[in-house]
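[step 3/7] inverse_fold.run input=structure_tokens len=161
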């Protein structure tokens, strides 16, 4: 008996991640230049919320995400769940850093960690995949998002002194 899995949960979570992360980044490029500089709200949105949303997409709705991405194996892919847990780890780190007021350097680190992950995923896909089977738009998006996160992290480190 074949079960059809909807892509809707993964697609909704993906778009929510884009919107919330983008709002956070926009705010970040503004607040990092204030006196005093801040990445508090951007860390909650661009790292914390996106990490949790990505965890939900990759781990909780893993089959929906796999179907959406075109790599459904018909069963749960444990590596995909692990990727979701990595997303959750840096998302929780950013939220905890805000709650316990660890400061601008700790928040900047959350941006650098998240950004490095996305840039490295982009490089990995470029050097290991048959790109004719991958859509270039999402790959550019992942790399650009990683670059934005790294830029905010570097600006935060510089502002923290």
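[step 3/7] decode complete -> sequence:
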């Amino acid at each position: 008996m074949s079960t059809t899995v909807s892509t809707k949960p993964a697609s909704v979570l993906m778009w929510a991640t884009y919107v919330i992360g983008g709002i956070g980044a926009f705010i970040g490029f503004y607040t990092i230049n204030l006196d005093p500089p801040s990445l508090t709200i951007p860390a909650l949105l661009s790292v914390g919320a996106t990490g949790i949303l990505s965890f939900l997409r990759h781990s909780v709705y893993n089959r929906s995400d796999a179907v959406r991405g075109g790599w459904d194996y018909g069963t749960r892919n444990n590596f995909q769940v692990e990727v979701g847990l990595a997303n959750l780890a840096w998302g929780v780190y950013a939220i905890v850093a805000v709650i316990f007021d660890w400061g601008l350097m700790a928040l900047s680190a959350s941006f650098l960690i998240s950004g490095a992950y996305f840039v490295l995923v982009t490089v990995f896909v470029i050097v290991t995949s048959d790109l004719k089977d991958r859509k270039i738009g999402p790959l550019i998006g992942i790399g650009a998002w990683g670059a934005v996160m790294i830029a905010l992290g570097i600006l935060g480190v510089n502002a923290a002194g």
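[step 4/7] annotate
The chain has one domain: 8-160.
The chain is about 80% helix and 0% strand.
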